[in-house]
Specification:
PyrdxlP-dep_Trfase_small, Aspartate Aminotransferase, domain 2, alpha/beta, kynureninase activity, Aspartate Aminotransferase, domain 1, pyridine nucleotide biosynthesis, 14 helices, single chain, seven-stranded mixed beta sheet, four-stranded antiparallel beta sheet, 12% strand, 15 strands, binds pyridoxal-5'-phosphate
């Protein structure tokens, strides 16, 4: 987390210059991670609108890359992913079953039997865990169920689960069905933390701690998002976890929007368990194999250890000891750590994509990515909130120069210029990741989306009035952010102006 202000370059610059494309390009030149953009396939504007996937033969019309600010939903494809998957297919094709046990000098991933361990090794530093504390397996909601099967053991006294009232639907359903699975009634078992102001659904840490206090004696488990998918709020994991533990309550974190985005320290923060998917900021493809974290104190499998007793779980052979796994004697010897929560042998096809992506994180490193991310999102916020209106701007290359907006000119005068949107994401960089969520004034969304699309900009909308914009430090540049602001602010002016005229 930490202080961003000292590093915020644009705050020291002459006002007008900050809004120019030239300035954004100068920030890109100084960006130590700039070369990573080239490791990703950025769809062209023509790619996005073409009715086919394959470019028709003979079509050589050049098209510029789109501006992709949607890594919070589905990350872009690394160029290396195809190589990794090809190599896997070739291994399977040329070796068949021998691929399981035989290492090869030109392999990108180890023999099939050990791919899961290779993935854990790369995954651990991304979430701040020991290698033994993570497993790359299954999918997010499935893993939440598996983890709750182990960590949610309701008793007569302690049976409630605390979660937020605006939880991602899948998390809500998973908790609700776990409760029903134990023949309990969600009505008095599911404790939903609701935001004070539904139009500004931010959860102050104080409020979460108070809810924990109120229900501590009857609560079995807390499940919260590390980063809230809608607002982009980054919860204070360390403090909330410590508080839960001080009240004797277990706590798990859904890191779907945090993994690969912020510099998580799940081990040091003493988190009991966590789960995430790998297709958002981790760029492993839609539905890619997910990950989970089990703190080392919960992964002990020594049946004589009184201090850290064995945690019962739903088991399958892949959670069993590697040395005896193939004896097929039906004596389950669990693997220590998170690996012991695995059930099935992993899809090597799928995990190859995860590994190819994690190799990039290993080169870039999370602390460096987070540093850039804070700058990039700060730049986005700064341009959105302070760019002068076109009617008051003279610099020809400024962000809102209406003569160059993708949707055309909007030269009419705005004597009472104000921004027709607000940022609902917290403004403190330690309380957010890459994403900013913008709430547009009623009636603007459709028109603004239309213009963004025409400008080749990919973002994500939540009807009726919110857009989520995520600048990913691996493949987004300061120029991308600048271009988004130019088109977005121009679109707001234009659509807002049209609506004003309609009203008259
Ligand atoms: C993306 C996301 C999911 C999706 O779950 P899958 O099991 O991967 O389909 C669930 N919960 C949260 C919080 C998410 O952000």
């Amino acid at each position: 987390m930490g202080d961003h202000k000292s590093a915020s370059l644009w705050r020291h610059q002459d006002d007008e210059y900050v809004y120019t494309r030239e300035y954004a390009e100068s920030l890109d030149k100084e960006d130590p991670l700039r070369q990573f953009k080239d490791q990703f396939i950025i769809p062209s504007k023509a790619d996005l609108t073409r009715k086919t996937i394959v470019v028709p033969e003979g079509d050589t019309t050049p098209s510029p890359p789109c501006i992709y600010l949607c890594g919070n939903s589905l990350g872009l494809q690394p160029k290396s992913t195809r190589k990794y998957i090809d190599r896997f297919l070739q291994t399977w094709a040329t070796k068949g079953v021998l691929g399981h046990f035989t290492p090869h000098s030109d392999e990108y991933t180890p023999q099939f039997l050990d791919v899961d361990d290779a993935a854990s090794k790369l995954m651990a530093p991304v979430v701040g865990a020991l290698v033994s504390e993570v497993a790359v397996m299954d999918t997010l909601t499935t893993n939440l169920h598996l983890l709750m099967a182990s960590f949610y053991r309701p008793t007569k006294e302690k049976y409630k689960i605390i979660l937020e009232g605006k939880a991602f639907p899948s998390d809500h359903f998973a908790v609700e069905s776990q409760i029903q699975h134990h023949n309990l009634d969600p009505k008095d078992t599911m404790i939903l933390i609701e935001p004070d102001d539904p139009s500004n659904p931010i959860f102050p840490t104080e409020k979460i701690l108070k809810t924990i206090d109120t229900h501590a004696s009857s609560t079995a488990l807390i499940l919260l998002p590390a980063i809230q998918f809608y607002t982009g709020q980054y919860f204070d994991i360390r403090e909330i976890t410590a508080h839960a533990h001080s009240k004797g309550v277990l706590i798990g974190w859904d890191c779907a929007h945090a993994v690969g985005n912020v510099d998580l320290q799940l081990h040091d923060w003493n988190v009991d368990f966590a789960a995430w998917c790998n297709y958002k900021y981790v760029n492993s493809g839609p539905g890619a194999m997910a990950g989970l974290f089990v703190h080392e104190r919960h992964g002990v499998v020594d049946m004589d250890d009184q201090e850290s007793p064995y945690r019962p779980r739903l088991s399958g052979w892949w959670g069993g000891d590697k040395g005896t796994r193939f004896l097929m004697d039906n004596k389950f010897v669990p693997r220590p750590g998170a690996a012991g929560f695995q059930i099935s042998n992993p899809s090597v096809l799928d995990i190859s994509a995860v590994i190819s992506s994690l190799e990039i994180f290993s080169k870039a490193t999370m602390p460096a990515l987070r540093r850039k991310s804070i700058e990039l999102t700060g730049f986005l916020e700064h341009l959105l909130l302070t760019t002068p209106s076109p009617s008051t701007t003279t610099t020809t290359t400024a962000v809102t120069d209406s003569s160059s907006t993708a949707a055309g000119s909007s030269s009419h005068h705005h004597p009472h210029h104000r921004r027709p949107f607000s940022i609902i994401t917290p403004s403190n960089p330690s309380e957010r990741g890459a994403q900013l969520s913008l709430r547009l004034e009623p009636g603007l969304l459709d028109g603004v989306l239309e213009r963004l699309e025409a400008g080749g900009i990919v973002i994500d909308e939540r009807k009726p009035d919110v857009v989520r914009v995520a600048s990913c430090p691996l493949y987004n540049s300061f120029s991308d952010v600048w271009e988004f602001c130019r088109v977005f602010l121009g679109a707001c002016e234009e659509v807002g102006g049209e609506r004003e005229r309609e009203k008259r």
